[in-house]
Each structure stands twice: as C-alpha cells, then as structure tokens.
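This follows on from our talk about sequence and fold. I would like you to pick a protein and set down its sequence and fold. Go ahead and set the record down below:
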Amino acid sequence: MAVQRAQGAEDRVRGAGGRVLDFLGRQAWMDRPSYRLENVLSFAFNAFGGARNRVTNFLNGVWLGHPVHPPLASLTTGALGTTVALDALGLLPGRASTEALDASRFAQRALGLGILANFASAATGVTDWQHTHESDRRIGLVHGVLNLVATGLYIQSWRDRRRGRHGRGIVTSAVGYAITSGSGFLGGALVFGSGIGMDQSGERLRIDTWTPVLPEAELPAGNKPTRVDVDGVGVVLCRDGDNVSAFAARCPHLAAPMEDGWVDRGRLVCPWHGSQFDLHTGVVLRGPAAAPLPCYQARVKDGMVELREGVATPLGVGRVRYLDPKPGQCPEIASAEEIAQ
C-alpha cells in the first residue's frame, strides 16, 4: 500500500506528460526500425563522398555554434501558428468579405512557408537524432513520425486551398497543428529534459593563475588523452609532440568522457560519435558536436604541466578578431588597441 501511495504521488508530480514520456521511453520494439533508419541515413550521407563532413557539419550547426534544428523548428511553428490564427480571423462573424479574403490569402502563404521550414527542420532534426540512444532515441522517433504525419496534412491543406476548398483546408491544417503541438512537447522534453542539443561539457575550471596539475613524466607520449581533476573539475591533457593542450573532460554533444578518445592529426576525437576538435583551440572540426570543446591554457614548467583558465568570450562578442594562438593555448581576444593597429 505504501509503495502504491508513493507511486501515485510520483505520478502526480510528473503529470500526464511525464507518464507519456515514460511510456514511450520503454518501447524497446522501436529500436529495430530506428537503427534501420540510422543505417539508411548513413548511406545517404556517405553518398556525398568527400563533401559528407561539410554537409553533416552544416546540418548539425557547427557553423552556428549550436544545433540548427531549434531555430528552424521555431520558424516552422511560428508560420503554422500564423496560418491557424489567420484562418480563425477569417471565420469570425461580422468580418467584411475583403478582410476574410485577405486573411485566407495570407494564411495560404504562411502555410507554404511553414511546409518549407518543416522540411528544413526535419533534415536537421533527423541528423541530430541519429546520434541519440535508448529512451531518447525512441521519443525522438515518435517526434519525427508525428511531424511527418502533420507535414502530410499541411501539404494536403495547401492543395485544398489552391483548389478553392478553403473549409476543408482550414480543418486539415488545424488538425496538423494539433499534432505538431503534441510533437513539440516531445521535442521540448528531449532538449530540456535530456539535454539533446545543449552543451554538456560540464563545469568549467576557474583558475586565473598558473597551477601545476601533473608531472610531465606522467603524461603519456602517445595519442591517448589523460584525465586529471583540478579543484573538483575534470580536465583532459593531450600531448602533441612537445606541446600540451588541455580541455574539458566531457564532450559538449552528449557528455562522452574525452579521456576515452584519442588524438589524430592535430585533432581530439570523441570516443562515442566521432566529433573532432582542434587540438589547439577546441573548435569543432567535425560534428555531431556543435559547441566547441572548452579549452584551457597549458604549459610545461620545471617538469610540471600547469594550467590556467582560458580567456572567455563575452556574450554578444561572437565575431571579434582573435590573436593567433600559441601551441597548447586557447586563442585570446585581441584588445581594442591591437584591433586598431
């Protein structure tokens, strides 16, 4: 009885949405079709040959610094929400016929924009989804299927409107928008609940003076990163010839332990999904990670590897010129005097 009461209390706290997510996350039968879909996606991306990485990097949002899917999804829902709102405005009683006609015309145009944005959102979303696992993968699969069904309804609505069947088109797009809203709940749970698409590199190291962290002799000479804990924060050290680099211990993509990765031709490679980061700056060179790997300044002095905090970029300063970094150090923001020179 006590166990039942505790379970009931937990259900009330989680609400209906939480129960839906739990139910979907337990549907292991979805794994077989989802991995088959992942194989199809891999073949499709491999068909680009040498341009594969450029295509996937673009879809993952490496150029933007975070995934492209969320802003595209916002554009999609905004356009579709505008369609539904204009449809409702056109149906209000007492409106002039010209006003209703204008509302119908602009609703159709907003619907067309929403359909195009939905295709772009789907392309970026499925690229992000293929690197998820277990319950997140299952919820993401349902999210994608619902969006696919809704897109089919939007296309049918657009065709009906073109043929003059405005009433049928209004009903069809309204049903599609209801499905999109439910799908949006699942997508939001993946982002805010599981952190899909969010920077998961973890806590940053905050030391502004050079601090010894490891004897140089204990740092292997091969391509294997070494983890150290500094003030309770994990850091991985990498040796590249005579240079030493230092990064956050977790991959920004899905928090993979970077000490299990390896160094390959001046790149630090994530052990889970193959994201590649520049060994001197932490900049993403290959996704699925979109955010850079946090980088710290590193040096060897008197036989000890020393670290200090990298120079942070203030919010809103995304395109300032950087000073050329020295090996093993993060790039530093140029001062106003240096930029003027």
About this structure: The chain is about 50% helix and 15% strand. The helical segments are 2-25, 31-46, 52-60, 69-91, 97-129, 134-162, 166-193, 336-340. Residues 312-328, 331-341 have pLDDT under 50 and may be disordered.
